[in-house]
Amino acid sequence: MNLPNRITLARICLIPFLMVFLLVDFPFYPEPLQLGSLTLPYNQLIAVFIFIVAASTDGIDGYLARKNNMVTNLGKLLDPLADKLLVTAVLISLVQMGKLDSWIAVVIISREFAVTGLRQIALLDGSVVAASAWGKLKTVVQIVAIVLLLLNNFPFSYTGIHADVIAVWAAALITIWSGIDYFIKNKDLLHLSKV
Predict the structure, then answer these.
(1) DSSP codes, 127-142
(2) pLDDT tens, 110-155?
(3) What is the DSSP letter of 190?
(4) 126: region left, alpha or beta (phi > 0 left; psi from -120 to 50 alpha)
(5) CB neighbour list of residue 41: distance below 8 Å, 6 or more residues apart
(6) Taking the complete model, does pTM exceed 0.85, yes or no?
(7) Is 144:48 a contact under the CB 8 Å cutoff?
(8) What is the pLDDT of residues 46-89, one digit of tens each?
(9) What is the C-alpha separation between 181 and 195, in angstroms, rounded?
């Protein structure tokens, strides 16, 4: 249990706290923060902070593991699992809050399951499916979309630009394409037998 793996576990442990602040209606919350015409409940602000901290640990644990030669099988299992748990938990919470259409959450989560399955096939085949540039871009755009949704499109709400909607659509499209890209580049792993 080295430092990178502890950081990954900490990311997983932050998920329940994130969901509590998103979904539990505490009666003792102060009045929402008013920024002109924009209303931001404090629970969402706390959730955004937790989400950003959790998402930022993804790069940190990987960097430390590679730099200090601490890459382990446990880390290879936990790191992608933590990422998927974090994104899945927030997407489902956003659907529950009425901030995200359920079909977009299903598309994004389905892609994550599909690529995870592909990675498992690769492991059984003795190979590794490395993260692609599209996969990394997908992660960044998903994080931006989630943050904008949790901040009620702040600061773009003052400009009339629906950056949250644009980011969600971009996240959905890039997520779909990155999934297709993984399968195209790794089609040999599927070993489709002839009937």
Answers:
(1) ---PPPHHHHHHHHHH
(2) 999 999 888 888 877 777 777 789 988 999 999 999 999 999 999 9
(3) G
(4) left
(5) 29, 32, 33
(6) yes
(7) no
(8) 999 999 999 998 889 888 888 999 888 788 778 888 989 999 99
(9) 26
- Give the Å distances, CA to CA, from 85 to 1, 78, 186: 20, 10, 24
- DSSP assigned state of 188: G
* Main-chain dihedrals φ then ψ at residue 33, nearest 5 degrees: -70, 125
78: which 2 tokens? 């936990």
Tokens of residue 125, six digits: 């085949």
- Please list the alpha-helical segments (H only) found in 24-132: 42-67, 73-96, 102-124
- Residue 159 burial class via C-beta count within 10 angstroms: exposed 0-12, middle 13-18, buried 19 and up: exposed
Best CA proximity match to 55, nearest among 138, 140, 179, 137: 140
